[in-house]
Design brief:
about 525 residues; alpha+beta; six-stranded mixed β-sheet; five-stranded antiparallel β-sheet
């Protein structure tokens, strides 16, 4: 059998520039161009004064963003790639930051990364890639970096905290600690919960830093105060919550939110919250979108029934945004599912302010306040036999219901699944963010921002690449510059990308792609 000839042991004359080893249209060049356009002046003040020189923040930023594009978020693996991978070596500018440098930069600069995300929105807007006539909002659960084995009740946390205090004070014998764990004074713990607690204490006993363990318990106690009756938190990440995923399984997760434009699926706003449902996330998403880009008054907004709270619909009307959000009954009907929920199942006489239930007219009687300070309006019949409690903003809900029952309204609403859901799929599966690698609410927000940055950059890059292909018939394309064939432009081995761009920008025969 014939095999392909190989050249083991033969010398290899590699090109003088690492850049020559990378395909010409690789996205890393666009990452480089974008990062070098950012404002790093704030870092200059931080690094002033005596001490060892720092790596330029543009280098670290390029490595982190390219890592997100390559589905690699580990600081150690990124540090290794900057020594072994041609693309990362090129972006690292022939320096080799270690994993601690990468990790510290990411942890210390959440605001800079948030501003970088805004810059991607601005870049897309300047290039005419955003259409604000219709935007879509949706949420998705992403698994937290937390263990279910350390998902403890309040009683377990209290007992563990007292044991750690004893460990700090003195080196207590193992038998004495086991006796306290097995103490039957707390009747709320099952045998399995007591067994889990034993395993946790056993692993914690090996730890040398007991003060850090104490901090974990204190953080868990703080999160306990925010919860309702079902008080359970994870020791590994106290800020995550037990949530139900789309597959019906319960897992420790965060609720992520996305708002996307309808033209090129550019992410306009993103966030992470601890809420198990999306009810209270529509207003923050709209406000964040307005911070990132000028939202038009006649903008249409698509969202699913999870956002159909009356207060959200009132907010959209006040903001001049035309919402398309069905109630749960309509959503089940649109999806051809069994209608298990009945919402807004009554008629309303707008002129006489009367609710009509089964032909009987009800008039306003009183306002009833629920436990969570939500108001319900009580309507009663004349004889008082029939009573109906409706949401405070039921009129907004009825207007939305009528709009979604029209053919036009339903057609606009159905567009949502082709706009925002593919974006969530891209973030979770193509970019590999189906589970967070960082812990804590602020840290996972940072991680999601990085994923949204590279999502937007890839969308912009693909549009520009198509534009290059169309225009390249008239001349050579170099880093988004159209160079006529009559103009002989070569790249000397010692010339940098910046030097060539400066030359091209001053030459009258070249054209810069927008």
């Amino acid at each position: 059998m014939a095999y392909i000839s190989s050249f083991k042991g033969q010398n290899w004359l590699i090109p003088h520039s690492i850049k020559d080893m990378i395909p010409k249209n690789h996205i890393c060049f666009f990452v480089e161009e974008f990062v070098e356009s950012l404002d790093f002046s704030g870092f200059d003040m931080i690094n002033e004064g005596p001490g060892h020189p720092s790596y330029h923040p543009r280098i670290i930023m390029k490595i982190i963003l390219q890592g997100m594009l390559s589905k690699e978020r580990s600081s150690r693996k990124l540090a290794s790639a900057s020594r072994e991978n041609f693309i990362f070596m090129y972006l690292a500018e022939k320096v080799q930051p270690n994993f601690r440098t990468l990790c510290r930069f990411r942890a210390d600069n959440p605001e800079f990364i948030k501003e970088t995300f805004k810059e991607t929105v601005n870049l897309a807007s300047k290039n005419g890639l955003i259409d604000l006539s219709l935007i879509c909002t949706d949420g998705s659960k992403i698994k937290a970096n937390a263990s279910k084995k350390k998902f403890l009740k309040e009683e377990q946390v209290e007992r563990l905290d007292s044991i750690i205090d004893s460990m700090i004070e003195e080196d207590i014998k193992q038998d004495e600690i086991d006796e306290r764990i097995s103490d039957g004074r707390e009747e709320n713990l099952t045998n399995l919960e007591t067994k889990n607690l034993k395993e946790i204490v056993k692993s914690y006993r090996k730890s040398k830093n007991k003060e850090k363990l104490k901090e974990k318990c204190d953080k868990a106690k703080e999160e306990m105060k925010k919860l309702g009756k079902k008080k359970r938190v994870s020791l590994t990440d106290p800020e995550c919550r037990m949530m139900k995923g789309k597959r019906g399984n319960n897992e420790l997760a965060y609720n992520t939110q996305f708002t996307v434009d309808s033209k090129n699926q550019i992410i306009l706003a993103n966030d992470v919250c601890q809420d198990q449902n999306d009810t209270h996330q529509l207003q923050p998403q709209v406000k964040q979108t307005k911070e990132n880009i000028d939202l038009k008054k006649n903008t249409k907004l698509d969202a699913d029934c999870n956002y159909s709270d009356g207060d959200n619909l009132r907010f959209l009307e006040e903001e001049g945004i035309e919402g398309y959000i069905p109630n749960q009954t309509q959503a089940q009907s649109f999806d051809e599912r069994e209608q298990t929920v009945k919402q807004d199942d009554y008629k309303y006489d707008w002129d006489r302010d009367e609710i009509i239930v089964e032909g009987v007219r009800l008039k306003y009687f009183s306002t009833w306040v629920e436990k969570r300070n939500k108001k319900r309006l009580v309507y009663k019949s004349k004889d008082g036999k029939i009573m109906k409690r409706v949401p405070e903003f039921f009129r907004q809900r009825l207007r939305m219901k009528e709009k979604l029952n029209t053919e036009k309204g339903r057609k606009i609403y159905n567009v949502r699944k082709y706009i925002v859901e593919p974006v969530i799929g891209n973030i979770k599966y193509n970019l590999g963010l189906d589970e967070f690698s960082l812990r804590g609410l602020n840290s996972v927000r940072l991680e999601l921002n990085l994923a949204c940055i590279v999502h937007n950059l890839k969308k912009i890059w693909r549009v520009r690449l198509k534009l290059c292909e169309k225009r390249s018939k008239n001349g050579l394309v170099f880093d988004y510059w159209i160079i006529p064939q009559k103009l002989n432009v070569t790249q000397p081995a010692h010339s940098s990308v910046r030097e060539i761009k400066n030359y091209l920008s001053s030459h009258p025969d070249t054209e810069k792609l927008s």
